[in-house]
Amino acid sequence: MSMRHFSVVVEWDSADEMWVTHVPALDHLSTYGHTREAALESTREAIVGYLEAAAKDGIPLPRSGPEPSIVELEVALP
């Protein structure tokens, strides 16, 4: 079995009190969970589903690009 790694962005949504994930390499596939671990497990399952559907439909996987990054911007307040 071959393995592939995906970068996952994990954020806390304070309005919904949930962990939210995004997979930039897979059209920003997104899941959530009440715990960080649950959100990541949901993400793992969603990635597998995405890959299975892509293989079934003959859709090529996106090529690996640069890793997502978080940058800090300074913004002047009005």
Explained architecture:
The chain is of the alpha+beta class and 78 residues long. It has one helix and three strands, in the order βββα. It has a three-stranded antiparallel sheet, with helices on one face. The model has no long low-confidence stretch (mean pLDDT 92).
Task: Quickly describe the structure.
This protein is α+β, with helices and mostly antiparallel strands and 78 residues long. It has one helix at 36-56, and strands spanning 9-13, 18-23, 29-33.
Map the helices and strands.
Blueprint: E1 9-13, E2 18-23, E3 29-33, H1 36-56
Antiparallel strand pairs: 1-2, 2-3
**Oligomer class:** single chain
Secondary structure: number of strands: 3
Strand order of the largest sheet: 1-2-3
The helicity comes to: 25-40%
Task: Looking at this protein, list some descriptive labels.
78 residues, alpha+beta, three-stranded antiparallel beta sheet, 1 helix, 3 strands, 27% helix, 21% strand, globular
